[in-house]
Amino acid sequence: MKELQKLLADLNPEQRVAVTWPEGPVLILAGAGSGKTRVLAYRIAYLIGHKGVKPQNVLAVTFTNKAAEEMAQRVQNLLEGEMKPLWLGTFHSACVRILRRDGEYVGYARNFSIFDETDSLSILKEIMKELKLSEREYNPKAIRSRISGAKNALVGPEGYPVSNRYTEQVVRVYAAYNARLRQYNGLDFDDLLLKVVELLSGYENVKDIYSDRFRHILVDEYQDTNRAQYLIVQLLSSKHRNIFVVGDDDQSIYGFRGADINNILDFEKDFPDVKTVRLEQNYRSTRLILNAASSVVRNNVGRMGKELWTENEEGEKLVLIEAADEEDEAMMICENLFRSGRNLRDFVILYRTNAQSRPIEETMRRAGLPYIVVGGMRFYERKEVKDIIAYMRLVVNPKDSVSLKRIVNSPKRGIGPAVVGRLERFAGEQGISLYESILRIEEIEEIQERYMNALRGFRNVIEKAKASVDELGAAELMSQMIDDVGYIRELEQERTREAGSRIENVRELLSSAVSYEERATDRSIRGFLTEVSLFTAIDGWNEKQEAVTLMTVHNAKGLEFPVVFISGLEDGLFPHSSSFESPSELEEERRLFYVSMTRAKEKVYLSHARERTRFGGPMPSFPSRFLKEIPEDLIDTEKSKFSQFDVGDIVRHPDWGVAKVLRLEGDGDDVRAVLRFEAGFEKLVMLKYAGLTRASKEDQWG
DNA sequence: GTCAATAATTTTTTT
DNA sequence: AATTATTGAC
Ligand SMILES: Nc1ncnc2c1ncn2[C@@H]1O[C@H](COP(=O)(O)OP(=O)(O)OP(=O)(O)O)[C@@H](O)[C@H]1O
């Protein structure tokens, strides 16, 4: 174990106060790169290593599974000895753990399924069909987001405000959706939190167990907790009141999914005896980057207000790349990347939306630069992977009819909607699940022999797997199932490149199960399914690989890189146009930009393009309003070789030589320039045809 | 019930 | 541009 003196030597005086604060509520309110996460790790090590707190009495919550892993690693390095019984994970993973043990109180058997957004959507569509609501009038995705919003705010169908015909229908769908989830013994992401709130607030005995147990609760990234998470923290800490939260109101970027910045702003009201610690020294970034980032976020109102300073050197100016279009932007990024001569793992390229990764990927591929994309189409969202997972989910939870319907005809067994409809009717009449109706298929009249045989085959493989679900590990059970249903065999017969890559993905899924078994204490398929459900793109990111990383700004939260490129800094994209009407959403976009810049240790590149392809065609784009919020003297500008020119610029025309730009008119695709050539004559040219280039220094003339 | 052609829709961010 | 939903032929 690291000696106390040594432990504390890695901290500055304020951090030390936070880490060694004896008891009661503590709020660490601090800006980017001030060591909040470090303080949290040291606090855990201090409590366990020096205050005799047992690991099982500590709950530490991080924002992602990856952050949890890293935290575990850091704490382990500071301590020796067993820390396994420590609860360390995201809110969602802690909630699953609680519900797997005690979910029965609120009506869920331990083997419940976790439904992702796609599953939710298909349930909603199913319900809307039954309620005869047209998908044109009631967009299922819009309804899903309304329901999700309501759940995050802890509003049930009873409490949902009805103000018109539309909201009336939302409530009907919402109620039916919840009933259906229960029937399927499944929870959606929002339920994982919601049901824990119900459990802890409705069952005193359960609350006692957990609030007794967690003598110390620590939460990282507290500014991005939502109402449900807030209540969970309140309930769990009600007994010992040792609640240690760290966060930065300027880094709250998940408002869109219910995160409430007031949770951190009101913490001092909720706990009047709180010890608030402010950390103001930044250890991450150069002085210049810090200045630029602070200037931007200063434009927000209602902040808690922090002044960051640093002992780091001033550093290099930010570079603003002005590109012609997204391809040019990608090229210029690559050029700068090459020019710097650094290791590829030093770079991250950030963007606001996942769609922006494509042109960058293509350019990097052409340039032969290795890269990793975090996010976008996730591995576990591919059809073949979801199919196999659905098989396993059905085995674990036979009431999971969403999964059943997904795979009853995949691989093809000739079971179409008609047969499924007949089964559903029977299930409805008998009050049984869809799978049970397959078990009792023989009782159903008017089902032809060929369908019956197909369903018997299906039933046999599921039953076989069910029999060994407790004996076999995740990988073996899954591999047996793939064999039994002939999933790979069917793909092999297709003999297409597409099918080949699907087979590869199925194999990769299997190997991820193998590695799960090596890691986990619970080797069963249940544990694996839970891990898969909660797995996110960033969790799989390997930062040590020698490659450039591409990710969204949201995914970069909490990370740091020597060099950061922030691309697509255009009005409508970053800030996104959807935020234009709402001042608070615009402020969230600004915080997003603040988070982006403060990821950088040494250098920040900003880029925008004058034209960007959207919905097929090219659309003019204008520099982000946020760029104007950075003091000009902190920025060097780099213009595209296809750059538009300013009045007064010296340019070279391919036929007529060097000229000076006298006037510019028109915009977008249709810009004309009046040029005065060295020879003395003037000419009007169309920029897009003239092929002008910026003239070099020697060409300068008066 | 299956498959292919056509039409519609899509881009905000994610546990 | 590309993915997804719908329609219609077999
Ligand atoms: N006392 C210290 N001495 C030296 N380096 C420190 C100290 N505290 C933190 N650091 C370093 O500063 C960097 C930022 O720390 P950390 O990630 O904990 O900050 P943070 O406040 O959580 O950042 P953010 O909110 O931006 O994610 C890390 O590289 C960390 O090692």
Automatic annotation (TrEMBL):
It is an enzyme of class 5 (isomerase). CDD domains: DEXQc_UvrD (cd17932), SF1_C_UvrD (cd18807). ATP binds at A30, G31, A32, G33, S34, G35, K36, T37. This is DNA 3'-5' helicase. GO terms for biological process: recombinational repair; response to radiation. PROSITE patterns: UVRD_HELICASE_ATP_BIND, UVRD_HELICASE_CTER. InterPro entries: DExx_box_DNA_helicase_dom_sf, DNA_helicase_UvrD-like_C, DNA_helicase_UvrD/REP, P-loop_NTPase, UvrD-like_ATP-bd. Residues 9-286 form the UvrD-like helicase ATP-binding domain. The lineage of its organism: Bacteria, Bacteria division TA06. It holds the Pfam family UvrD-helicase. Its EC number is 5.6.2.4. Belongs to the helicase family. UvrD subfamily. GO terms for cellular component: cytosol; DNA helicase complex. It catalyses: Couples ATP hydrolysis with the unwinding of duplex DNA by translocating in the 3'-5' direction; ATP + H2O = ADP + phosphate + H(+). Residues 287-558 form the UvrD-like helicase C-terminal domain. The keyword NADP does not apply. Keywords: ATP-binding, DNA-binding, Helicase, Hydrolase, Isomerase, Nucleotide-binding. One of its GO terms (molecular function) is ATP hydrolysis activity.
